[in-house]
Known about the structure:
The chain is mainly alpha-helical.
Amino acid sequence: MSGGAAHYAWTMCASWDCRLTWLYEWQTLVAGSAALIAAYIAKKAVQSQIEQADRHMKEQRGRRFIAARATMPLTLSDMCAYAETTASRLQAFRKALSGTSPGAAAFHPAKLPSASISALEHVIEYADDNPALVLALQRILSNVQLLHARTSSLTRTRRIHQLNAGVTAEERLLDCALVQAGAGLLFPFARLRTEEVTDGLGWPEIHNALLNLDIDVSAFPHLAEVMKLAAEHGKSPSDW
C-alpha cells in the first residue's frame, strides 16, 4: 500500500477503533513483508557460505591433486622397477627349469611396492576431472596386483610340479610388460609435459616394454606364440 493510500485510509476512519484496527492490519502486513525480506537475506547468506565452502573444498582437492601428481614420476618408476625385478627373476627361473636340475628351480617373488600403490590411489582419489587418468591408473594397479598374485603361485612346489611352470613363467613376462608399458604411457603427464592422458596401450607398446625389460621374445617360444595369436585375433593387451 502506497503512502497516499495509507493516509487516505487513516483519514477515512471515523473512530479510533477503526484506526487501531487499520494500524494493526497494516503492522501485520509490514511484519510479514519484513519476515519475507529477512528470510531471503538469510537464504542468500547460507547460499554464500555453502558456495564459499564448496570453493574452499575444490581448491583444497586441487592442491592435493597437485601434490599427488608431483610424486607420480617416483611412484611410476617404482612400478617399472617392480616389473623389471620380476621379469629378471622370471627369466632366471625359466632358465633354471630348462637346465639339468629343473626340480631345484625356485622362484622368489619381488616385494610388492605397497607405498607406491597407496600413492597412486591418492592420485585417483583427487583426479576428479580426469577420467582418462583414473582409468589408466586403475589398470596399472590392477596389473601390478595381478602380476604379484600370479607370480606368487610359482613359489608353491606342488603347483610347479602339477603345471608347466616354464610356460607359466613365460606368460608372466607378458604381465610384466603390461605394467611397464602402462607406467610408461603416464610419464609425460607425470612430468608435466602434457595435460592429456591417452589410452594408447597396444602391441607395439608391449614390444617396446619387453625390450626395456631386456626380454628377448625369440628366446621364449610360448610367449611369442601367445602374442602372435592375440594380435591375429584382434585382442588388445588389456584383454590379456
